[in-house]
UniProtKB/TrEMBL annotation:
EC number(s) from the headed UniProt entry: 2.7.1.-
Family named by the database record: Belongs to the KptA/TPT1 family.
Protein name, per record: Probable RNA 2'-phosphotransferase
Record Gene3D superfamilies: 3.20.170.30, RNA 2'-phosphotransferase, Tpt1/KptA family, N-terminal domain
UniProt entry keywords in alphabetical sequence: NAD, Transferase
Single annotated GO MF: NAD+ poly-ADP-ribosyltransferase activity
Any single biological process term in GO: tRNA splicing, via endonucleolytic cleavage and ligation
Major enzyme class: transferase
């Protein structure tokens, strides 16, 4: 498939697997998995102009730069690795973070973030990365990027829980502003 097609399917999968499965009448289990055959038939029966098949889904999974999706070992189910707004239990284990993690946002959010800390907004978790490059790319989606450095290890020592998704994104429920260093 062309990269344009793959991108379109990737966005569609993000939409139904992270945010709105009911848009096509799909159900995710408590751990966020969708049955692939069910996903294909419901996507193709929906009003969305999308034509899915297994090969295409596999190609999106294999070529996703961020490894956004994972197919279960038995090949029957698919889920998003992170980014959910719906309440799913990814069964992630708490892990000790590195001393610092980074969050990319837009400069216009700084005042609010300094007042309220980082909040997950529509998603289940605040998304953090180990490197400034990733954080910059994330922040750019919303405007002039601003990189915040987070005292992650200190947070962990003070009782905050961190997780790492299957594709390496660091997740935590919130970051009070006392742990933020503006870069
Ligand atoms: C901001 C993409 C004002 C926060 C990315 C962010 C990531 C506040 C926005 C993943 C705030 C939420 C997640 C506060 C947080 N006041 N603004 N108190 N607290 N914010 O999209 O981290 O490509 O939900 O800084 O790469 O941008 O889709 O989170 O700007 O990994 O796979 O509120 O989504 O992955 O935006 O992005 P988002 P995010 P994919």
């Amino acid at each position: 498939a062309s990269s344009k097609q793959l991108n379109k399917v990737s966005k569609f999968l993000s939409f139904v697997l992270r945010h709105k499965p009911e848009a096509i009448g799909l159900e995710l289990d408590t751990n966020g998995w969708a049955n692939i055959d069910d996903l294909i038939s419901k996507a193709n029966a929906s009003s969305e102009p999308i034509n899915l098949d297994r090969t295409l889904i596999q190609e999106v999974v294999d070529t996703s730069d961020k490894k956004r999706f994972i197919i279960s070992d038995d090949g029957q189910n698919i889920r998003a690795n992170q980014g959910h707004s719906i309440n799913v239990d990814l069964q992630l284990k708490p892990v000790t973070p590195p001393e610092f993690l980074y969050h990319g946002t837009a400069t216009r959010f700084l005042n609010s973030i300094l007042q309220e800390g980082l909040k997950p907004q529509q998603r289940q978790y605040v998304h953090l990365s180990t490197d400034i490059e990733t954080a910059t790319a994330v922040g750019q989606r919303y405007g002039k990027p601003l990189i915040l450095k987070i005292k992650a290890l200190l947070m962990h020592e003070q009782g905050f829980v961190f997780y790492q998704s299957e594709n390496g994104v660091w997740l935590t429920e919130s970051v009070p502003s006392t742990y933020l260093i503006s870069q």
